[in-house]
Amino acid sequence: MAVVTFEDKEFENVCKELENPQLDGGWEFFTESHDVQIHRLYREESGLYEYKVLGTLSDVSPSVCADVYMDLEYRKHWDSYVNELYEREVEGKKVIYWHVNFPMFMSNRDYVYMRELREFDVDCGHVWAVLAQSTTLGDVPEKDGVIRVDDYKCSLVFASDGKQGTKAFMYYYDNPKGMIPTFIINWAAKTGVPGFLTSMQKACRKYPEFCSKRKTASS
Predict the structure, then answer these.
(1) What is the radius of gyration, based on Cα positions, of the chain?
(2) What is the reported pTM?
(3) Measuring CA to CA, which of 85, 109, 165, 212 is 20 to 30 A from 76?
(4) What separation in angstroms does the CA of 97 have from each of 13, 73, 82, 88, 137?
(5) Could you report how far apart the first and last alpha carbons of the chain are, in Å?
(6) Tens digit of pLDDT for each residue in 137-184?
(7) Is 199 in contact with 78 (CB distance < 8 Å)?
(8) What are the φ/ψ torsions at residue 207 (nearest 5 degrees)?
């Protein structure tokens, strides 16, 4: 797929998942910890799983969550798995390159993808929805020793939890290729997603300070 165009219906569907996750058709409960619940669906063609995640970030607002998630420069400061991350415009479209550090003795992975953030007013209130998917737009060359992930899809929705925090939904699938043992994939799914949300929550708390320093440095 050269150019990713996200349709209105895709955003509508993912927003509905926040209040009513669609778990029919083979989805199974996987794990739950730290206010995060994960379900998964097996894909026959790849032998891998798709994941749906529901979680709560108790003391940060959904607008800040959306800002932090979309701020690539800030992510380099709080996400230790980022090796390289940048956005550039290609044929009028914004394309993101993301090089991810993998554990020792495993090759790093990189992604080339497009994403879009939209805001909506739905039954549960105001929501922020993000869709992302692999693209070949931009012809970003592959790097020696780094495996290109070309089958990646992610959706997120943030909304108020009715108190001072954020309720979040995430759909995630990628095919990292290579010979990765199943137990490592399962471990990453069970610990990586809750760990990511915990790190993101901490990053949200520190975001105003980062923005202030960035503004001062650029003035």
Answers:
(1) 17
(2) 0.92
(3) 165
(4) 26, 12, 11, 8, 11
(5) 41
(6) 888 999 999 999 999 999 999 999 999 999 999 999 999 998 888 778
(7) yes
(8) -65, -45
